[in-house]
Specification:
Blueprint: E1 4-15, E2 18-30, E3 35-39, H1 46-54, E4 61-66, E5 69-70, E6 81-85, H2 96-107, H3 111-124, H4 140-152, E7 158-162, H5 170-186, E8 190-195, H6 198-204, E9 207-212, E10 215-220, H7 222-227, H8 232-237, E11 244-246, E12 257-260, E13 265-267, E14 273-282, E15 287-293, E16 296-302, E17 314-319, E18 325-327, E19 334-335
Parallel strand pairs: 3-8, 3-9, 6-7, 7-8
Antiparallel strand pairs: 1-2, 1-4, 4-5, 9-10, 11-12, 12-18, 13-17, 14-15, 14-17, 15-16, 18-19
Helix pairs in contact: 2-3, 2-4, 3-4
Bound molecules: adenosine-5'-diphosphate and magnesium ion.
Magnesium ion binds near residues 46 and 47.
């Protein structure tokens, strides 16, 4: 059973005379066989946190547990983990089969068993017909899958992935996303997956841990973080287009920020929020209406078959009942 526990982890780097606090007091419990996503913008500390789990960085403070074992002093290769990165290095002169088998060869596993294990991993990733090829004869996506298969054969307790899909084109990224979810279902490892892409996080994760500036903002299922974002940051980071955030005073209370998702901001004649249409984007299945309300930019998703106003039109909005979010104007914390 490989649950992973991060207990008050901080990591500070010296940068010239300055200190960079890459990870700031993060406590996170990851259950056995979870698909946990670490999500946040570039520079928020995701990779550093993953590297702390891997043992590639020592935390400045805090403890890391894998299973029941405190692993702060355990070297990476004894942590029962495997890692896959955005930049993967395959051996160009070895076949796919030899690349996948390599970690087993290092461990001294016999030839027949190696081949069988490699084939099993290859089948999981749909590579079984390419075993004799060299990496140069594969597409980028296939090479990425070879790197994943090579990590799978190690049968790790914990599988760590750092933006492994970001080099793939959009179509392949979508396919590989689905493959990883399927892979997770079929193997017993715990997954920790780093991404800056909210769509990846929402579609793959059993839970999502949202980070900003080294701090943990919220942990929850994709639906929980979407429905009840704990901070204004989470509210705007998750969801495309992002949640509308109205400064205190624009809607009702003059002391809190009010958040309304674009799908909950409706055109209602006589509605309380007055704005002027600035841009109309026809996406086929929906229309995005961008408007200006006293200097605040709003976006509303509307049905293309309903009335669609034009640029320059004055409009009025209302929010769907029960769909308002309220945040503290300075701290950004959610107010119930
Ligand atoms: P992310 O993966 O979320 O983009 P990182 O964990 O790579 O973020 O980096 C978090 C912060 O720590 C950034 O400000 C980055 O510049 C800094 N940082 C990361 N690694 C080092 C390092 N080895 N030395 C100095 N600063 C670092
Ligand atoms: Mg990173």
């Amino acid at each position: 059973m490989a649950q992973v526990r991060l207990d008050h982890i901080s990591k500070t780097f010296a940068s010239g005379d300055d200190q960079v606090r890459a990870v700031d007091d993060v406590t996170l419990d990851i259950e056995h066989h979870e698909f946990m996503i670490l999500l946040g913008p570039s520079g928020c500390g995701k990779s550093t946190l993953l590297r702390v789990v891997a043992g590639l960085e020592d935390p400045t403070a805090g403890d890391v547990y894998i299973g029941d074992r405190r692993v702060n002093d355990v070297v990476p290769k004894e942590r029962d983990i495997a890692m896959a990165f955005q930049r993967y290095a395959l051996y160009p002169h070895k076949t796919v089969a030899a690349n996948i088998e390599f970690p087993l060869k290092v461990r001294g596993v016999g030839r027949a068993e190696r081949a069988a294990e490699a084939l099993r991993a290859a089948e999981v990733l749909g590579l079984e017909h390419h075993m004799k090829r060299k990496p140069g004869q594969l597409s980028g996506g296939q090479r990425q899958r070879v790197a994943l298969a090579r990590a799978i054969v190690r049968n790790p307790a914990v599988f760590l992935m750092d933006e492994p899909l970001s080099n793939l084109d959009a179509k392949l990224r979508g396919d590989t996303r689905a493959e990883l979810v399927d892979l997770h279902r079929r193997i017993d490892s715990t997954f920790i997956y780093v991404t800056h892409d909210p769509v990846e996080a929402m579609t793959m994760g059993s839970r999502v841990a949202v980070l900003n500036e080294g701090r943990l903002q919220q942990v929850g299922t994709p639906q929980e973080v979407y429905d009840r974002p704990a901070t204004a940051f989470v509210a705007q980071f998750i969801g495309t287009p992002p949640m509308n955030l109205l400064p205190a005073g624009l809607w009702g209370s003059d002391t809190v920020q009010v958040g309304i998702r674009p799908e909950h901001l409706r055109l209602v004649p006589g509605g309380p929020l007055h704005a002027v249409v600035r841009q109309v984007e026809h996406l086929g299945h929906e229309v995005l209406l961008f408007a200006d309300a006293n200097g605040t930019r709003l976006v509303s998703r509307i049905d293309p078959n309903s009335f669609v106003p034009e640029v320059g039109d004055p409009v009025a909005f209302d929010a769907e009942p029960g769909r308002l979010h309220r945040f503290h104007p300075e701290s950004g914390e959610r107010i119930e």
